[in-house]
Amino acid sequence: MSHHIYQTKAFIIDSVDVGEANKLLTIFTADLGLIHVSAQGVRIMKSKLRPSIQDLSYSKIALVRGKEYWRLTSAEKLISLYDKRVHLSVRKLMARVLMFVKRLTAGETKHEELFDMLSKLFTFCFENSKQLADSQKTSPEDSILNTLELIINFRILESLGYGSDDAGFDEIRNMFDWNIAMIENLVIDQERIKKIAAHVNQAIVSSHL
């Protein structure tokens, strides 16, 4: 019996080793949400799939549904946060972001808006890694990177139904393309930062997750 092959882009959040050569991946997709995928033989050095399913990667993959888990049939890496051009501080930020998504999403639930936001964010961080990392050196407490993480958390929570009707959040709510200049403006507006942080903390409490 043939199996339907489902093709999608996905974030590889993390993975665990299974047996001698396999991995069980936790991935996030637009249509399926958070799912677990069995990747057979990918720990063998000669595996062609191995480079494309590294943790913290954004990849194009193909899946078929198995009895217990989805099963990986092909993969093509689009962006890896372990690329040497990505600074460690940026990689750590995105690792926290993906773990936050993992914490707040569950089951095969469609999250198209959230996935689109994360896709643009990955590209933004990859292309602006040096500038984001350098901001930590000049002002570690009030850096672009710290403010970016706060904005991301706000956007994740809002996309999952933990938003606010406060018009004061409209600028970050309607930010469809990530922009360093706008983040820099927020960095110097500490009252606004405190307000966003308070909302994020309350939304996390409200989520019970």
Question: Layout of SSEs?
Answer:
Layout: E1 6-18, E2 22-29, E3 33-39, E4 57-65, E5 70-80, H1 88-104, H2 112-127, H3 129-138, H4 144-159, H5 170-173, H6 180-187, H7 190-207
Parallel strand pairs: 3-5
Antiparallel strand pairs: 1-2, 1-4, 2-3, 4-5
Helix pairs in contact: 1-4, 4-7
- Name the overall outline: globular
Number of helices: 7
The pLDDT mean sits at: 88
Number of strands: 5
Keywords, please?
209 residues, globular, five-stranded mixed barrel, 2 domains, alpha+beta, single chain, OB fold (Dihydrolipoamide Acetyltransferase, E2P)
Q: Could you characterize the architecture of this molecule?
A:
The chain has 209 residues and is α+β, with helices and mostly antiparallel strands. The chain has 2 domains: 6-80, Nucleic acid-binding proteins (OB fold (Dihydrolipoamide Acetyltransferase, E2P), Beta Barrel); 88-207, no CATH class. The protein is built from 7 helices and 5 strands, in the order βββββααααααα. The protein has a 5-stranded mixed barrel. 31% of the residues are buried. The model has no long low-confidence stretch (mean pLDDT 88).
